[in-house]
Amino acid sequence: MTLKIQKISEEWGSTIRLIGRIRSAHLPELKEQLENAAPRIVLDLEDVSLVDVEVVRFLGDCEAGGAQVLHCSPYIREWMAREMGAENTR
Q1: How many domains does the chain contain in total?
Q2: Domain span at residue 56?
């Protein structure tokens, strides 16, 4: 399965629901979706099955920039924490 993106716009902001596998090749499309989203952004990863390291870094950057990352699997959340920690030690 490849990546499917569902965007839901609300008064308060936008929820971007990601479904499937996210690879670094999908990042330009994701960045475009975020740029066109309302000020408050929620990334829903409930149906994400696989990511690569560039995506993990991207998600960490999104969170650091104020986006909320919901329903993130424990392995992705742990990987994000490790990547953000590694970035802070450089």
Answers
A1: 1
A2: 4-88
